[in-house]
């Protein structure tokens, strides 16, 4: 009798296990080395934390564990396409692509051909889903949205004249052009603009030009990030320019807060702010628990957001079918991530997310606000 | 006029840093015929030492000494471990070796330290500025000009008055004959690497004090600039490297200062076109090495 019971139990288990064993295969093709690793590496840390959390609870919906298949694309566009092809061949249901529009777009053909939804870790160029088509999604507030938030803030602070520094090298570093567009539309006057190349060490010529302007611009906006941004800011302050400087999410990094006097009063837009009791503060506590070190950047939390989005989409789709997940993803509404509430419904793949404005005050971050931009002011995505 | 003078100060400061970088490449090339593309990683090492010293709370002056020392030791080790085994191999082999060293070090930095850039704490003095003769000069700029001058004087003295320096010059002119005269190949080459490490260390301090952060790939841009400057000046010629470095600095700054706004986007290619024009007129560089063997270039 006992034996019969055991056999029955085993048989039942055996019958149930195929359903239990269904896992969601997520292909992760991100830059763990090279220039983009600065962003992708912390995002993937957040991804792991979220996946472990979900799997410990039995998986998505309690019964569908997530399996990550990871490949390093070395910040290289061609390598991204190769890695994505390999992951598609392994039968993944969702793809995660690097934190920049350019390598993500390199995989576009394969993604659309295989009809598998792909999400870039943290690319913020609004052209990404536009060019990438219906299977390409972003996971960050768009550049045009960030620029609108900062331009409106500058205008409200009574700043009337502006200057921008941008780089034509990537989509992201052209963000200041959106800023100029909005600032102009609000009635502000642009006193000029300068370009730089990514990795440019010396900003003295540009800074000398800004310092020689009379009158000085009220606000200087740039989307430069490390190492360009600290070089620029140090040179700017050393040349005696005291204008308000506004940056964007690329400078949400420890270096910015360790620059001392030159960075004092600097304002930038980013994906979130860890107010006490907020989901981001909760995530940061969890991050410290898991890794033993405090989170150094909001990009950790952005990785957590990414998995929360995949989880919500898969749950809504009710299966691991890529097409069903894509359709569910495109209709997601109000997913609670670590940094923000995330909505894809009604967008072309560029999510609606909160933008936080942060001010550097005595080497610490201070929340300026989390304003919603005026919809009519948000510039249309601009193709380079 | 003020604008021009200010930009000229910028150009001297940037050119000086390029000159130090190019000299580091030239010292090794003149003796071994090797362009050491891992030179930039010596700078990264110095940068990380600055970072760790800052975290440990050491005074900045002491950190500078340690950083330069670390780059020098690393250069000697690099020679001992990677380049000595391939010393008599073809130029291409040595070149590939230097790329390999560079990549191995970059991946080690990424895996052992961090893929993210790490902040370097700098004394506030470095981001200050002083008023001189009616215009504003950053302390950083003054330091970089001063460091360049000191290094150039030191190098001149070392090469002319010091036994090792004279031996290095002899080896650069004709290694085989120099060895017949009793000069030890190992010590001359190790000396050349130590000197290039020293130059890399000084350049790294100047470089990092501008950007306030270090990342695993930070060596790439400076070594590229150094390479252009060294070619421009005449590969293997020390005076040429200095001239090339300054010329490159002047080209970059004046283009950034005086190109019309709509052309600024093409600043780098225009700068390189100017370099090509100089090379068309002087194919062996501004000041060719005396012992330039045509097949080496």
Automatic annotation (TrEMBL), chain A:
Residue span(s) of domain Leucine-binding protein: 23-363
Keyword Transport: yes
Keywords: Amino-acid transport, Signal, Transport
InterPro entries documented for this protein: BCAA_transport, Leu-bd, Leu_Ile_Val-bd, Peripla_BP_I
BP-aspect Gene Ontology terms: amino acid transport
Secretion signal, residue range per the UniProt entry: 1-21
Membrane spanning stretches: none
Domain of life: Bacteria
Keyword hit for Signal: yes
CDD domains in the record: PBP1_ABC_LivK_ligand_binding-like
Family in the record: Belongs to the leucine-binding protein family.
Record protein name field: Branched-chain amino acid transport system substrate-binding protein
UniProt source species: Salipiger thiooxidans
From TrEMBL, chain B:
Main location: membrane
Membrane topology: Multi-pass membrane protein
Compartments where located: Cell membrane
Entry GO MF terms: transmembrane transporter activity
Alphabetical keyword list: Amino-acid transport, Cell membrane, Membrane, Transmembrane, Transmembrane helix, Transport
UniProt family annotation: Belongs to the binding-protein-dependent transport system permease family. LivHM subfamily.
Organism in which the protein naturally occurs: Salipiger thiooxidans
Pfam families xrefs: BPD_transp_2
Source organism, top-level taxon: Bacteria
TM region(s), chain numbering: 12-37, 49-77, 89-113, 133-159, 188-210, 271-292
GO cellular component, one term: plasma membrane
Protein name: Branched-chain amino acid transport system permease protein
Biological-process GO terms, alphabetical: amino acid transport
């Amino acid at each position: 009798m006992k034996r019969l019971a055991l056999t029955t139990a085993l048989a039942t288990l055996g019958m149930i296990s195929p359903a239990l064993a269904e896992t969601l295969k997520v292909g992760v093709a991100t830059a763990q080395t090279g220039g983009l690793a600065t962003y992708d590496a912390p995002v993937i840390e957040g991804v792991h934390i979220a996946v472990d959390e979900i799997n410990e609870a039995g998986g998505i919906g309690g019964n569908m564990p997530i399996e990550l298949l990871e490949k390093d694309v070395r910040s290289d566009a061609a390598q991204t396409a190769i890695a994505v092809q390999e992951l598609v061949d392994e039968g993944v249901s969702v793809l995660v692509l690097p934190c920049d529009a350019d390598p993500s777009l390199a995989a576009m053909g394969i993604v659309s051909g295989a009809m598998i939804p792909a999400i870039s870790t943290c690319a913020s160029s609004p052209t990404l889903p536009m060019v990438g088509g219906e299977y390409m999604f972003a996971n960050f507030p768009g550049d045009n949205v960030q620029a609108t938030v900062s331009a409106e803030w500058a205008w409200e602070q009574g700043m009337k004249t502006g200057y921008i520094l941008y780089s034509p090298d990537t989509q992201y570093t052209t963000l200041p052009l959106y800023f100029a567009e909005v600032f102009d539309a609000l009635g502000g006057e642009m006193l000029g603009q300068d370009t730089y190349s990514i990795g440019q060490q010396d900003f003295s010529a540009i800074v000398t030009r800004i310092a020689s302007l009379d009158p000085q611009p009220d606000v200087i906006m740039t989307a430069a990030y490390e190492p360009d941004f600290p070089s620029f800011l140090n040179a700017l302050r050393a040349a005696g320019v005291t204008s308000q400087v506004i940056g964007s999410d690329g400078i949400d990094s420890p270096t910015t807060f360790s620059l001392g006097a030159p960075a004092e009063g600097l304002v930038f837009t980013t994906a979130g702010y860890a107010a006490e009791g907020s989901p981001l503060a909760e995530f940061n506590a969890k991050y410290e628990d898991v890794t033993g070190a405090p989170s150094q950047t909001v990009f950790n939390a952005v990785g957590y957001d990414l998995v929360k989005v995949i989880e919500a989409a898969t749950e809504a789709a009710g299966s691991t079918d890529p097409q069903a997940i894509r359709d569910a993803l495109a209709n997601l509404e109000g997913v609670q991530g670590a940094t923000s509430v995330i909505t894809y419904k009604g967008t072309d793949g560029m999510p609606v997310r909160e933008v936080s404005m942060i001010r550097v005050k005595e080497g610490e971050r201070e929340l300026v606000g989390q304003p919603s931009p005026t919809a009519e002011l948000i510039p249309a995505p601009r193709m380079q | 006029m003020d604008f021009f003078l200010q930009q000229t100060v910028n150009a001297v400061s940037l050119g000086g840093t390029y000159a130090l970088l190019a000299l580091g490449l030239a010292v090794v090339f003149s003796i071994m015929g090797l362009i050491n593309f891992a030179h930039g990683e010596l700078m990264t090492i110095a940068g990380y030492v600055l970072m760790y010293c800052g975290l440990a709370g050491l005074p900045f002056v002491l950190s500078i000494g340690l950083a330069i020392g670390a780059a020098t030791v690393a250069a000697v080790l690099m020679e001992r471990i990677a380049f000595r085994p391939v010393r008599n191999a073809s130029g291409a082999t040595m070149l590939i070796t230097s790329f390999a060293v560079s990549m191995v070090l970059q991946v080690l930095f990424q895996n052992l330290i961090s893929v993210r850039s790490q902040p370097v704490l700098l004394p506030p003095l470095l981001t200050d500025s002083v008023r001189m003769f009616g215009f504003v000069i950053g302390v950083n700029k003054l330091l970089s000009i001063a460091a360049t001058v000191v290094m150039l004087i030191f190098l001149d003295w070392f090469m002319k008055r010091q036994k090792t320096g004279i031996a290095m010059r002899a080896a650069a002119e004709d290694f085989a004959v120099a060895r017949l005269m009793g000069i030890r190949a190992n010590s001359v080459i190790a000396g050349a690497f130590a000197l290039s490490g020293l130059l890399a260390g000084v350049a790294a301090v100047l470089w990092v004090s501008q950007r306030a952060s270090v990342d695993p790939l930070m060596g790439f841009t400076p070594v590229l600039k150094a390479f252009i400057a060294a070619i421009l000046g005449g590969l293997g010629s020390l005076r040429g490297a200095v001239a090339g470095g300054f010329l490159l600095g002047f080209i970059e700054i004046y283009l950034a200062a005086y190109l019309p706004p709509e052309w600024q986007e093409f600043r780098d290619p225009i700068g390189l076109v100017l370099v090509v024009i100089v090379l068309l007129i002087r194919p062996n560089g501004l000041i060719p090495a005396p012992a330039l063997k045509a097949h080496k270039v």
